[in-house]
Design brief:
Its main location: membrane. By secondary structure, this protein is mostly helical. It is 72% helix and 3% strand. The chain contains 15 helices and three strands. A three-stranded antiparallel β-sheet has the order 1-2-3. The protein is globular, with a radius of gyration of 22 Å.
């Protein structure tokens, strides 16, 4: 009874925390209107729909994962509702569609909660998930369409679906399941493995084959950003599973080697790196986006120009690849730092779910989801601030894009389901 009251209080805390994101949505809407910005004609419907989606997510957690940690959903809601405001600001014609994708994301979120309550079934899909990741990549290569030099989209029912987002989800399931089985062997130095046991190299082989297949396919599709994200995730998760720094060093070498090969093999990668190193060399061409992004960040200063009062839309792809620059210009570095801190808090909350797990598979799966979102956010923020070359991947929950929003909401639902399962005292699984 006492435990039930405690968990009930946590849902009440979650609901109270959600007032912040909902106020952010309303203030953002009215700020744009006060600035004289021409909002979409359906803005009332967009704001109402987005708010109802967040409330519905709270209801899904309350009934589907009542014992889950209370801070996860409010953190995600801050980012998703900020995304609605920024899409309405940067691409008004797409704001309604973003709100519709948020509604689809609610279904993925609820499905993720249900899946998180059945970790043993997810674990049985480990190798199926790895195979599906490679098959989806192959299908994209055969039937996909090329946009901005990369072949990453499939046309489904009239909508362009970025398949790499779904591939990331499949690889999260594969990596968690595989490392839960093989982590113990990989954590031992190879010379010390007894003759009676299977050599550690054998455990590396399935991981290497799936990663090599995914990396090769992504290279053929010219998606170097997803390759970097995939390798960084694999490195981080292998380190979490084994504690061996040697794997981290090997992985870092692979990332550097992949970047060098990509630079030599693909013209659009070379153009991005050259524009990063010296955007002034071609200010009206390849360096234009990078220069405009730098000007936008500088114009924002500490407190920003104010929503609707800057000109971040002069930056190409401002609503997708460069949405963080738009935040920095109109909300200032204070607002941009706040967004980065939300991602750090979300990463911390996800890793706390992993720490509370009662078995290695649940622990690694929760860590994989948290690390995937955290690494992706870090890569895109660093690219927007010209700390690294741009990668073409989206800022989770904030950038315009249905595939990214739906998949990431599904993964957060999975994380909440895992949190409930661990905190409810479910019987531990083998491993």
């Amino acid at each position: 009874m006492i435990l039930q009251q405690a968990f009930s209080r946590e849902r009440a805390v979650e609901l109270a925390l959600l007032t912040g994101p909902l106020l952010l949505l309303g203030i953002g809407w009215r700020s744009l209107a006060a600035a004289g910005f021409e909002l979409p004609g359906s803005m009332v419907r967009i704001v109402t729909q987005a708010a109802l989606c967040v409330i519905a997510m709270h209801a899904a957690v309350r009934f589907g994962a009542p014992r889950a940690r209370p801070e996860l959903l409010p953190l995600v809601a801050v980012l998703a509702l900020l995304g609605i405001v920024m899409v309405a600001r940067l691409a008004p014609g797409s704001a309604g569609q973003q709100a519709n994708w948020l509604a689809v994301g609610f279904a993925a979120f609820a499905g993720g909660i249900a899946a998180g309550r059945m970790p043993q079934r997810l674990r049985s899909l480990t190798y199926t998930s790895g195979l599906l990741a490679v098959l989806v990549l192959v299908a994209t290569g055969i039937f996909g369409e090329t946009i901005n030099g990369a072949r990453l989209w499939l046309r489904v029912a009239g909508q362009s679906v970025q398949t790499t987002e779904f591939i990331k989800a499949f690889l999260v399931l594969f990596l968690a399941g595989y490392l839960a089985d093989a982590g113990g062997a990989l954590s031992r130095p190879l010379p010390r493995v007894r003759a009676a046991t299977v050599p550690g190299a054998v455990y590396v082989l399935p991981l290497a084959l799936v990663l090599a297949g995914a990396v090769l396919a992504l290279a053929l599709l010219r998606d170097l950003g997803s390759i970097a994200l995939l390798l960084l995730l694999a490195i981080a998760l292998v380190y979490v599973a084994t504690g061996r720094a040697v794997f981290a060093f090997i992985g870092a070498g692979l990332v550097i080697a992949t970047g060098m090969v990509g630079y030599a093999a693909f013209g659009h990668v070379q153009a991005r790196v050259d524009a990063w190193l010296d955007p002034g060399a071609d200010p009206a061409g390849a360096g234009y986006q990078s220069l405009q992004a730098t000007y936008a960040v500088n114009a924002g200063g500490i407190l920003g120009e104010g929503l609707g009062r800057g000109v971040p839309d002069v930056v190409p792809a401002a609503s997708t690849d460069y949405v963080y620059v738009a935040v920095a210009e109109e909300l200032g570095m204070a607002g941009a730092a706040g967004v980065a801190l939300v991602y750090l808090a979300l990463l911390h909350a996800g890793l706390r779910v992993a720490a509370e797990a009662r078995d290695s598979y649940t622990r690694l799966l929760a860590a994989a989801v948290a690390l995937l979102i955290g690494i992706q956010a870090a890569v895109i923020i660093a690219g927007n601030l010209r700390l690294i070359p741009t990668t073409g991947i989206t800022l989770p929950f904030v950038s315009y894009g249905g595939s990214s929003l739906v998949v990431n909401l599904g993964l957060v639902g999975l994380l909440l389901g895992l949190s409930h399962t661990s905190r409810a005292g479910a019987a531990p699984q083998p491993g």
